[in-house]
Specification:
Distance between the termini: 54 Å
Radius of gyration: 19 Å
Shape: globular
Number of strands: 10
Structural class: alpha/beta
Order of helices and strands: EEEHEHEHEHEHEHEHHHEHHH
Largest sheet: 8 strands, parallel, barrel
Helix content: 25-40%
Oligomer: single chain
């Protein structure tokens, strides 16, 4: 396992980090299974665990808390807030009112008195940067969080938040958590240059592209990844973007075979090779999934392999741009672009 400094924090984290989204109802993972995955991840050298309040409506945090009991100080613990936690309209977003309340809820579920990294799960257009950063700074000074970061923010919002922190003399985001994989490279053209400029740590999610790069998705083979059951439209080959992904996967499989690598090693080695990336978040649902992903921990891709990948999916290109989560609201809601 490789270790890297998380932005400018001085905190050392593993190049592969454990994402806990599949703990609980989402991944149908029991407490015993989750604890076994955490045990094996720590034994394999992972020291960063990332969860969120909304994963299985808090169940993931509860499972993580039970799994790490007695060894909290050995783990860099991260969670997130901001996505809806029920139907109440104020139980979401990044207002001071909600963050102060929900952090206490997360700490209770996790069974800890602080988290090392508290992340805003999505940019909240209804709340000013000053409001959010002021609340996070106060929570940091109270000792409830050590650092805070953003997740899936558009590049211009990352910049705006950095300037707001400077203008109002508040603590700043020290990390960003974007989606990044061989098949979704758009952040190379806008987000990653910004994170490098501001010295942010980068924890990338979905490096296996929701299973497309796991080796399980191939031409002529029935798609059986867990994501295909609740997001079937993302694996419908009749959709042109999915056809393009499958064609790319077939060519990538040839590159992996020629290099003597699994598809998982190719995929994880690719994202961790980028100098702006600190860690890749893996989200195993089973111990077998974890072990196949841990096998990529020390994978270093040669320049020839990286060039071959570039020839299949060009730098800065998203093969499924419609699945991006950082689209400006006005592009999604016509009322926001009408007078």
């Amino acid at each position: 396992m490789q270790y890297r400094t998380l932005g400018r924090t001085g905190v050392q984290v593993s190049s592969l980090a454990l994402g806990a989204m599949n703990f609980g109802r989402i991944g149908r993972t029991t407490q015993d299974e989750a604890t076994a995955i955490v045990d094996a991840a720590l034994e394999g050298g992972i020291n960063l665990i990332d969860t969120a309040d909304m994963y299985s409506a808090g169940e993931s945090e509860e499972m993580v808390g039970k799994a790490i009991a007695g060894r909290r100080d050995d783990i860099v613990l991260a969670t997130k807030a901001g996505m809806p936690m029920g139907d109440e309209r104020n139980h979401r977003g990044s207002s001071r009112r909600w963050l102060v309340t929900e952090l206490d809820n997360s700490l209770r579920r996790l069974g800890v008195d602080h988290v090392d990294l508290y992340q805003i799960h999505r940019w909240d257009p209804n709340t000013s940067d000053e409001e959010t950063l002021s609340a996070l700074t106060d929570l940091q000074r109270a000792g409830k969080i050590r650092h805070f970061g953003s997740s899936t923010f558009p590049a211009y919002r990352i910049v705006q938040a950095q300037w707001a922190a400077r203008e109002h003399r508040l603590s700043r985001y020290v990390t960003e958590q974007p989606s990044y994989s061989i098949l979704q490279r758009g952040i190379e053209s806008h987000v990653l240059p910004v994170t490098e400029q501001y010295g942010l740590g980068v924890l990338v999610w979905s490096p296996l592209a929701a299973g497309w790069l796991s080796g399980a998705v191939r031409e002529g083979r029935e798609i059986t990844t867990s994501r295909s059951t609740f997001m079937p439209e993302r694996f419908d080959i009749a959709i042109p973007a999915n056809r393009a992904r499958l064609d790319a996967v077939e060519r990538l499989a040839e590159v992996a075979d020629e290099a003597g690598l699994t598809m998982i090693q190719l995929a994880l080695g690719f994202v961790t090779a980028h100098p702006a990336v600190t860690s890749a978040l893996i989200g195993p649902r089973t111990l077998d999934h974890l072990h196949t992903q841990l096998a990529a921990a020390d994978t270093v891709l040669s320049a020839d392999v990286l060039d071959a990948i570039d020839a299949i999916v060009a730098p800065g290109v998203d093969l499924a741009a419609h699945e991006k989560h950082d689209t400006p609201p006005a592009l999604l809601d016509p009322s926001l672009r009408r007078r």
